[in-house]
């Protein structure tokens, strides 16, 4: 009996907000392009995880979201797949005017994992992803950014550097993801996050993911998200 209740606890899903789109059961339910469906199959993803079932229709409908789920629950695809759809829906952008999608993560390692996942799904539509974190010289980074990209995956510090150096502009960015928000706060990136958010147009779509929701993160979420839907999977936050 104990085991069963533990299992239920891990599966517990709580959703709050107005007019919440219904969860999907399969990737097909999301109406992804055939190219994207192929990439999903190629990744070996047969069906969406709990957070993906709940979050993807919400994000695809254009709503802001707070997603709270533990590590390993598949949060990356939950924001990357709808981001590809969001970008493909935008009018053709001119070079040097990107990015449209901006993803911030706390560390270089985490940002790199997201970058790899983004590449797998973005290349089927010819979208360009730039990695904005340590590991590449700033000179090469600036050169790459100036060539143009639709998606940037960044750590907050390096992103601010690149904005300051005018290597990229946030004027076309309409899809902002703050991944592992609690860890970004733990690492002291709150001022950088606020600065980045302040440079992105207020009519953007904002997604905040976190394993836990400390009061400081909750406060930021209240300030920067518009009528968010909150999805909690499992006994976290
Ligand atoms: P989180 O960000 O929640 O910690 P990740 O996005 O890193 O989780 O995903 C954890 C692992 O699950 C990764 O190896 C990823 O490739 C895999 N994964 C994600 N979605 C699915 C899916 N729908 N089916 C099978 N595996 C998946
Ligand atoms: Mg993650």
TrEMBL record:
Origin superkingdom: Eukaryota
Helicase ATP-binding domain location: 56-231
Intervals of motif Q motif: 25-53
Limits of the DEAD-box RNA helicase Q domain: 25-53
Family: Belongs to the DEAD box helicase family.
Protein name: RNA helicase
Protein's organism: Cucurbita moschata (Winter crookneck squash)
């Amino acid at each position: 009996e104990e085991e069963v209740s533990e299992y239920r606890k891990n599966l517990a899903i709580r959703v709050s907000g107005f007019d919440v789109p219904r969860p999907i059961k399969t990737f097909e339910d999301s109406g992804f392009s055939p190219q994207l469906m192929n990439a999903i199959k190629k990744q070996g993803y047969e069906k969406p995880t709990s957070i993906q079932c709940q979050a993807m229709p919400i994000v695809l409908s254009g709503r802001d979201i707070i997603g709270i789920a533990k590590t390993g629950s598949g949060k990356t695809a939950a924001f990357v797949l709808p981001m590809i759809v969001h970008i493909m829906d935008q009018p053709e952008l001119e070079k040097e005017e990107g990015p449209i999608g901006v993803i911030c993560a706390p560390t270089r390692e985490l940002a790199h994992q997201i970058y790899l996942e983004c590449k797998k799904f973005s290349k089927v539509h010819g979208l360009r992803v730039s990695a904005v974190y340590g590991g590449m010289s700033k000179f090469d980074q600036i050169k790459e950014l100036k060539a143009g990209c639709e998606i940037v995956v960044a750590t907050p510090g390096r992103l601010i550097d690149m904005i300051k150096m005018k290597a990229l502009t946030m004027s076309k960015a309409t899809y902002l993801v703050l991944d592992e928000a609690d860890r970004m706060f733990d690492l002291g990136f709150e001022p950088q996050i606020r600065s980045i958010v302040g440079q992105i147009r207020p009519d953007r779509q904002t997604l905040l993911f976190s394993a836990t929701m400390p009061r400081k993160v909750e406060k930021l979420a209240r300030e920067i998200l518009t009528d968010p839907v909150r999805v909690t999977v499992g006994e976290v936050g």
